[in-house]
Amino acid sequence: MSEFRMPSLGADMESGTLVEWNIRPGERVERGQIVCVVETQKGAIDVEVWEAGTVERLVAEEGQKVPVGEVLAVIRPEGEKAEGEEIGQETPAERPAPEGPRSTGPTTPPAAATPSLATTGGRLRISPAARKRAAELGLDPAGVSGSGAGGSITLEDIERAARSAEGEQAAPSARPVPKAGTHAAMRQAIAAAMARSKREIPHYYLGNTLCVEPALAWLEAHNAQRPVAERLIFPVLQLRAVALALEAVPALNGWYRDDTFQPAEGVHLGVAIALRGGGLVAPALHDADRLAPDAMMAALRDLLTRAREDRLRSSELTAAGLTVTNLGDLGVESVQGVIYPPQVALVGFGRIAERAWVRDGKVVAARCLHASLAADHRVTDGALGASFLTRLTDLLTEPERLWPS
Q1: Predicted confidence (pLDDT) at residue 258 exceeds the cutoff of 80
Q2: What is the fold, at CATH topology level, of the domain defined by 2-102?
Q3: Distance CA 32, CA 315 (A)
Q4: How many CB atoms lie within 10 A of CB 322?
Q5: Which of 25, 76, 102, 173 has the fewest CB atoms lying closer than 10 Å?
Q6: How far apart are CA 368 and CA 217, in angstroms?
Q7: Which residues form the Lipoyl-binding domain (predicted)?
Q8: CATH 2.40.50.100 residue ranges in the chain?
Q9: Which residues contact 383 (CB under 8 A, 6 or more apart)?
C-alpha cells in the first residue's frame, strides 16, 4: 500500500485544512489527478496524486486540519491486493462509501432543487473559488449548471447565477471578496518565509543594466501580423532568457535542504504574482526551457488567471527551482529580491526606460532595463552568479538565440 500524505506547499507551511475530497474508496486514480482541495494560508490549492492505483481508504476527513507529512489516504498500487482480500473480507470497492461530514453551508432542499449537471454520485463538482463565492453570496451551488470540464461549476457560473437571481444583465465577473482574516494569514505566511530567508540564507547580490532594443525589435516584428489576443508580452522573453541561462548555470536551479544543494530535475520557474486582494504567490511555470513562444504565453496567462482565482495546483507550489519577479510595470528601476527558501536564487527585473547608451562609438537613446540576481552564498559564489547574468544579458541582446529555428 502507498500512503498519500499532506504535501508541503511552501517553506512556511506546517499544516493544511482538507476542504474537499474528489475521490472515494474503490475509485481508480491516475498520476497527476487532482484528488482533493487543501486550504492553506495562501488560499485553496488543488492537490495532485503522483501514483496511479485504487483508493483503498480515506484517512483524513473533510474539514480536518492535517499537519504536513500526515497521511491523507491510502492508495493501492496497480497489481497489489486490497486490504483483507486474502481472508475473504470485502474490498473497499465493495463497501459502501462512508458518509462525509455534514456541511455547515447552504444545503439543497430534499425534493425542491433539481440536481446540477455537476453532481455525480451525490457529490458536487465545483472549483474552490466558486464554492467560496457561492457561500459569500448565500447561493446554493447545487442548483447551478456547470460550464467547466465534465460539467463542473466555475466561478463564472456562480457569478452568472447570482446576476440572474438579482435580475441584472450579464457583466464581467467580480473578484471574490476574501474571507475575513485571509489577507492577514497570507501576510503571516510571507513574513515567516522571508524572515527565515534573511536569517538562514547568506545572500549576495549582482546586477546588470542591459539594452533591450534588440529584444523589443524582435517582439514587435513577431507581433506585427498577429491578432491582439495572440501577441506575446515582453515577460515571456525574460522568462525564456532566464530558463536558458539556468541551463548554462544549473547550480542556481534547485533547493538547499539538509545542508546540501539538491538540483532541480527540470527548469520550472516560479513567477511572482501580486494578488488583487493583497499578498503574493509564486507558482511554477513548468518546463520553461522547452516551451515555444505561443505555448509559453498561453501557460503564463493560464497561471496568472488561476492564481488570481484561487485555483493553483500543488505541483505549481513545490516545483519551482528559481523565482523570477518583475516589478517594471510598477515603475521600479531595479529589484533586490529576497530568496524564497529552500530555493537558492531569485532574478529581478526593473522597468524598461530610455537611457543614454553607447553604440558604435556614439551616444544614443536606447531602451534599457536593470536585471538583478540574489543568490545563496552557501551554494554559489559571485563568479558563477556573474556568469549567469552575462548569459542572461547575451540572450536578451541577441533574441534570435531564444528560440533558434
Answers
A1: yes
A2: OB fold (Dihydrolipoamide Acetyltransferase, E2P) (2.40.50)
A3: 9
A4: 29
A5: 102
A6: 13
A7: 1-76
A8: 2-102
A9: none
Q: How does pLDDT run across 203-223, given as a tens digit for each residue?
A: 999 999 999 999 999 999 999
Q: List where CATH 3.30.559.10 sits in the chain.
A: 202-401
Distance CA 195, CA 203 (A): 13
Give the range among 122-131, 195-204, 396-405 with minimum mean pLDDT: 122-131
pLDDT score at 99: 44
Of the options 3.30.360.10, 3.40.50.620, 3.30.559.10, 3.30.470.20, the CATH number for the domain spanning 202-401: 3.30.559.10
Is the N-terminal amide bond of 106 cis, ω within 30° of 0?
A: no
Is 120's pLDDT higher than 60?
Answer: no
In angstroms, rounded to a whole number, what is the distance separating the alpha carbons of residues 106 and 139?
A: 7
Sign of CA dihedral 348, 353, 356, 361: positive
Q: In what order do the strands lie in the sheet with 28-29?
A: 2-5, 71-77, 53-58, 28-29
C-alpha cell recorded at residue 153:
461549476
- Which pLDDT tens digit goes with each residue over 71-117? 999 999 987 877 665 544 444 444 444 444 433 333 333 333 333 44
Helices (H), 224-371: 234-248, 293-308, 314-318
Contacts of 203 (CB under 8 A, 6+ apart): 338, 339, 374, 375, 376, 377
